[in-house]
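Subject: for your reference before the review

Hello V.,

The reviewers asked for a structural picture of the protein, and I figured it would be easier to keep everything in one thread rather than splitting it across files. Below is the amino acid sequence we used in the manuscript, unchanged from the supplementary table.
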Amino acid sequence: MLSEENVIKILTTVIPTLLVALIVPIYGIRFALRQFYTQKWWETKSSNYSIIVECLSNYRYATGELFEHYTTNEIYNREIISRYEKLIKESFEEIKKQISVGAFVVSISAIDELAIFIRKVETNPDSISGNHVGSLDSNCGYAVNSIDTIKTIAKKDLKIK
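And here is what came back from the structure prediction:
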């Protein structure tokens, strides 16, 4: 039979070992899950910022190419114009969509920058006055500025140097 002394030795070594064996995995799992969800959230934010920059870049590219086409050709190619106008429209609509969707994921300052971009394009004095070529030039510039600003905001929000 076990003596009282052996029982005490067993209790003092087994109980702490069992407690440690139970507590460590629980905290390990909690830490791993927290890290997983943090990483997943970071990936979601990063993906949204990538979509935003891609749309702005497509918009900038299409307005720049269309501007160049109008200023370097005497005869306009309807197919080229149609392709770039379609890309401009699709990019612009996606940017508007990202304002709604992105408000949940990306920073408020990024959403504000997109709203400023939209407002500048929609109230462009050249567009209002009918100067199509001038509006392409200034809208391209608005996109370039917004791309730079969004990249800076994204780096800060995603904690990238």
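For the response letter, the relevant points are probably these. DSSP finds five helices and no strands in the chain. Residues 4-72 form the longest helix (69 residues).

Happy to draft the paragraph if you're swamped.

O.
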